[in-house]
């Protein structure tokens, strides 16, 4: 009897166990290992001595760190604002302003293509367009219009290209989420608004945007975290160059750890990345009034 | 004044409305009544300007408004789902139409509060729609529709999401408000009782056509066809198929399990030459007696339901056990009949309706 009850009670835990173990092995332990590594001077000799906050002191003394933080903030801020704005624009256009539902859906599918491309292919595509030689697509165009010398796009405007490429492939996720939310607004509400005299501008401002508050917050928070941690596109496109002009904090951490094999120092940088994105996320929650969103309704007669 | 002239509406291959014409006078309360899919909501959407008619004209006060946008039609509308703006408080919902008219902030909130007080929701003005009960949401929707003092009020099944008891209160309230404001109102409903209770006139629709347009009494007492006769009234009118026999001066109805002699004073449409008719008799126009009388119909009681004020009795017509023709009768509670009892029915010959079976049109 007691054994049977114990068995029944233990079922959920048994079902959860495999995932708990996987999470522990591949997430919790590496995270703790990173924290530990950040407090050591582990490097190519693979000998780890505990140095406390030594790595962090080194970060503040690093002459590269200020320009890198500046690049990171510019990259995250503009990518974030443009991604959210662009996905909102796409969602409102394809879901509300374009009255033909099939046409809107087709347009959204087209916008999904960049995000379905493997990262490497996507980078190759952009590298072809902005190839610094006269054979590059952008250079062919500007030289056709009379420019004598080819432009070294990635050297001159690397960060801008990286942001644009990221926005174009990143906007589709938000677009899908936003257009689903717009679609879930009942048809009667639009009809009521039309009877009440609302024009498109007022419908977008007073009805569609408030309905998107929660998805906008979700996209903003996940994008912030994602942008702070991402470095793959930049690594493949410019390797952070020229000098550190396109190096973000996450990429710098990667380079310290895997190019210069300064594991301890790299880990310390990535801890800083985590702390910054955590603080920003909390700030965003505050900004979006998260507590209000999860407040229970009051219903009575 | 509203005038619909030869309105038709097609959605692809299906015809939702066919040649609908309707006159609504200022201050009238008109119900568009019919089963689902009859075209009543489509008619309302055309009145609101949310749908364009495929053909025909809509006139408001003598002006053709076919191409006038909903916002310029001076209408207030309540939707079945209420369609409150979920992210606005009650007061902002009510003030929204005024905001769209660029009424100054102070003025529009004052007006919104007045309307809220009139509908007794002034203590709820800071709530969000999700924090309101169904009845409260309904009031907010009414308040929003009335906020801009519209010329016409359109109500699309405004009570179908309320429970039965609340419905009676709300419909009284709507009627009271309509009379007080004298606002021309059109309500769409599938509930004949609701339509009878609130409306000055009822347009009853089926298959996209207006079957009959008149006062509730007219529709109830003088239905023009079988559909109207059956739709109006609860429990519905009893419908019996029968043969029409002419025998000199005598006119006899003969159906399964019954023979009924129409009294000679009853006039029938002279156009009718056929032999197949349908006899219609309302449940309260049939008397039950335990003794046989002249021209009475024998029947057997199969069900007695106590409704409180009266009894609903279901009887099987005829002498033998093989008939399947049954009718419902409303009778006073003091009548004592029991299951399986043999009884005799007499019809009030002035109150019966006879319809041509082929066309469904009334011939009495």
UniProtKB/TrEMBL annotation, chain A:
Transmembrane segments: 12-39, 73-97, 109-129, 157-178, 215-234, 263-288
InterPro entries linked: ABC_transporter_permease (IPR051393), MetI-like (IPR000515), MetI-like_sf (IPR035906)
Gene Ontology annotations for the cellular component aspect, listed alphabetically: plasma membrane
Keyword annotations from UniProtKB, A to Z: Cell membrane, Membrane, Transmembrane, Transmembrane helix, Transport
Family: Belongs to the binding-protein-dependent transport system permease family.
GO biological process: transmembrane transport
Entries under SUPFAM superfamilies matching the protein: MetI-like
Protein name: ABC transporter permease subunit
Statement: the UniProt record of this protein carries the keyword rRNA-binding: no
Keyword Transmembrane helix: yes
Domain of life: Bacteria
PANTHER family linked: ABC TRANSPORTER PERMEASE PROTEIN, INNER MEMBRANE ABC TRANSPORTER PERMEASE PROTEIN YCJO
Annotated compartments: Cell membrane
Topology of this chain in the membrane: Multi-pass membrane protein
Signal peptide coordinates: none
Domain ABC transmembrane type-1: start-end pairs: 69-284
From TrEMBL, chain B:
InterPro entries: AAA+_ATPase, ABC_transporter-like_ATP-bd, ABC_transporter-like_CS, ABC_transpr_FbpC, ABC_transpr_MalK/UgpC-like, Mo/tungstate-bd_C_term_dom, NA-bd_OB-fold, P-loop_NTPase
Any one annotated GO CC term: ATP-binding cassette (ABC) transporter complex, substrate-binding subunit-containing
Limits of the ABC transporter domain: 2-232
CDD domains: ABC_Carb_Solutes_like
A Pfam family per the record: TOBE_2
Alphabetized UniProt keyword annotations: ATP-binding, Cell membrane, Membrane, Nucleotide-binding, Transport
A single MF term (Gene Ontology): ATP hydrolysis activity
Top-level taxon in the UniProt lineage: Bacteria
Protein's name according to its UniProt entry: ATP-binding cassette domain-containing protein
Organism of this sequence: Paenibacillus monticola
């Amino acid at each position: 009897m007691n054994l049977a009850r114990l068995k029944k009670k233990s079922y959920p835990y048994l079902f959860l166990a495999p995932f708990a173990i996987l999470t522990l092995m591949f997430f919790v332990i590496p995270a703790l290992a990173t924290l530990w590594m950040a407090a050591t001077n582990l490097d190519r000799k693979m000998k780890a001595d505990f140095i406390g906050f030594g790595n962090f002191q080194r970060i503040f003394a690093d002459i590269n760190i200020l320009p890198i933080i500046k690049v990171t903030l510019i990259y995250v801020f503009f990518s974030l604002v443009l991604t959210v704005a662009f996905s909102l624009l796409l969602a409102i256009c394809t879901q509300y302003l374009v009255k033909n539902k099939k046409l809107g859906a087709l347009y959204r599918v087209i916008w999904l293509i960049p995000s379905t491309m493997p990262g490497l292919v996507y980078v190759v595509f952009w590298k072809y367009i902005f190839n610094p030689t006269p054979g590059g697509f952008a250079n062919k165009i500007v030289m056709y219009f009379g420019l004598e010398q080819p432009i070294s796009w990635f050297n001159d405007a690397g960060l801008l290209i990286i942001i644009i490429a990221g926005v174009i492939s990143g906007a589709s996720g938000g677009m899908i989420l936003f257009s689903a939310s717009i679609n879930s607004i009942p048809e009667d509400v639009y009809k009521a608004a039309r009877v009440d005299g609302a024009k498109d501008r007022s419908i977008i401002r007073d009805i569609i945007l408030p309905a998107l508050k929660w998805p906008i917050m979700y996209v903003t928070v996940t994008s912030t975290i994602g942008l702070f941690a991402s470095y793959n596109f930049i690594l493949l496109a410019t390797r952070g160059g020229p000098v550190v002009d396109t190096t973000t904090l996450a990429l710098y951490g990667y380079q310290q750890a895997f190019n210069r094999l300064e594991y301890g120092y790299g880990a310390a940088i990535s801890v800083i990345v985590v702390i910054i994105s955590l603080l920003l996320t909390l700030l965003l929650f505050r900004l979006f009034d998260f507590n209000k969103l999860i407040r229970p309704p009051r219903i009575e007669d | 004044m509203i005038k619909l002239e030869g309105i038709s509406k097609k959605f692809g291959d299906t015809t939702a409305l066919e040649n609908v014409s309707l006159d609504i006078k200022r201050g009238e309360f008109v119900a568009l009544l019919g089963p689902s899919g009859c075209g009543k909501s489509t008619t309302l959407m055309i009145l609101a300007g949310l749908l364009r008619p495929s053909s025909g004209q809509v006139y408001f006060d003598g002006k053709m408004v076919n191409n006038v946008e909903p916002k310029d039609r001076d209408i207030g509308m309540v939707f079945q789902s209420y369609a409150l703006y979920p992210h606005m408080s009650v007061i902002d919902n009510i003030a929204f139409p005024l905001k769209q008219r660029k009424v100054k902030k102070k003025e529009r909130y004052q007006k919104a509060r007045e309307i809220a007080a009139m509908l007794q929701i002034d203590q709820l003005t800071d709530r969000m729609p999700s924090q309101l009960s169904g009845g409260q949401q309904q009031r907010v929707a009414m308040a929003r529709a009335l906020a801009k003092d519209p010329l016409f009020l359109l109500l699309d099944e405004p009570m179908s999401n309320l429970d039965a008891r609340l419905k009676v209160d709300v419909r009284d309230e709507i009627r009271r408000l309509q009379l007080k404001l004298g606002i021309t109102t059109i309500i769409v409903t599938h509930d004949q009782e609701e339509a009878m209770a609130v409306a000055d006139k009822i347009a009853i629709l089926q298959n996209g056509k207006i079957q009959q347009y008149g006062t509730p009494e007219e529709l109830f007492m003088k239905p023009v066809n079988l559909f109207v006769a059956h739709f109006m009234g609860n429990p519905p009118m009893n419908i019996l198929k029968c043969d029409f026999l002419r025998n000199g001066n005598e006119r006899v109805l003969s159906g399964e399990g019954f023979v009924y002699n129409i009294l000679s004073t009853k006039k029938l449409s002279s156009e009718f030459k056929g032999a197949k008719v349908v006899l219609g008799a309302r449940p309260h126009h049939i008397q039950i007696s335990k003794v046989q009388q002249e021209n009475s119909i024998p029947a057997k009681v199969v069900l007695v339901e106590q409704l409180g004020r009266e009894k609903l009795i279901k009887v099987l017509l005829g002498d033998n056990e093989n008939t399947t023709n049954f009718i419902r009768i409303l009778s006073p509670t003091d009548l004592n009949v029991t299951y399986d009892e043999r009884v005799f029915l007499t019809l009030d010959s002035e109150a019966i309706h006879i319809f041509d079976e082929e066309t469904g049109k009334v011939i009495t």
